[in-house]
Amino acid sequence: MHVPKLSRFFAIGLTSALLVGTTLSTASAADDAVRVRGTVIALKGDQLQVQSREGKAVTVTLKKDWAVAAVAKASIGDIKTGDYVGIASLPKSEGGDGALEVLIFPPQLKGAGEGSFGWDLKPNSTMTNATVADAVKSVSGSTVTVNYHGKEKKIAIPDGTPVVTLAPATVDDVKPGAVVFVSAEKGQGGALSAGRVIVGKNGVVPPM
Questions:
Q1: Which of 18, 26, 59, 176 has the largest count of CB atoms under 10 Å?
Q2: Under 8 Å between Cβ of 131 and 122
Q3: What is the Cα–Cα distance from 165 to 180, expressed in whole angstroms?
Q4: How far is CA 148 from the centre of its chain?
Q5: Do residues 172 and 153 make contact, with C-beta atoms less than 8 angstroms apart?
């Protein structure tokens, strides 16, 4: 799989889109970040209307010069030692963590938002942004060992786990019916705003 080459501006934009709020260390700060997952109803000017996964209509005001990126399909076999990845996972009953999804970051984003922290993809889920130390394939999938801030974590990646990387997109891709992921900021009165949008494209949807 070829990972698209990204410009410096595009890389900065993608970092903001995916990692806003994820490195916050206090509950009060985290409350200011709202991750919107759902389907586009309409984009009118700077107003993005989304039917959220909870079934609610959500409006996000897009900031001036907002940017958009897409997700592209990858595979477990694309994960190699030295890659920088973001893995959402859940604790397994037998111990350790099992991946819910994997994002392979382009090289330009290595180190962005490094760490392991609570995530809201599913109850009790965690997001780990880290460097792959090794990846071992097994009959039922793979297990990766990742390193972040001097710590080590092993995460099982079952076959069928969504694996994606990042790709270019345009405003035209943010159209009714498109699946989006938006990390928004909550302002006064609960109004949401964001500078970046991650959009599904070519049948691949944001799994994060």
A1: 18
A2: no
A3: 15
A4: 17
A5: no
Tokens read off for 21: 């709020």
- What is the distance, to the nearest Å, from the Cα of residue 50 to the centroid of all Cα atoms in its chain? 17
* Residue that is written with structure tokens 């109850």 in the block: 123
pLDDT digits (tens, 9 = 90+) for 26-77: 223 344 579 999 999 999 999 999 999 999 999 999 999 999 999 999 999 9
The helix (run of H) or strand (run of E) holding residue 15 is helix 8-19
Whether 50 contacts 58, CB under 8 Å:
yes
Q: DSSP readout, 154-188? A: EEEEETT--EEEEEE--GGGS-TT-EEEEEEEE-G
At 95, the pLDDT band (50, 70, 90 cuts) reads: confident
Q: What is the DSSP secondary-structure string of 53-121? A: TTS-EEEEEEEEEEEEEEEEE--GGG--TT-EEEEEEEE-TTSSEEEEEEEE--GGGTTTT-EEEE--S
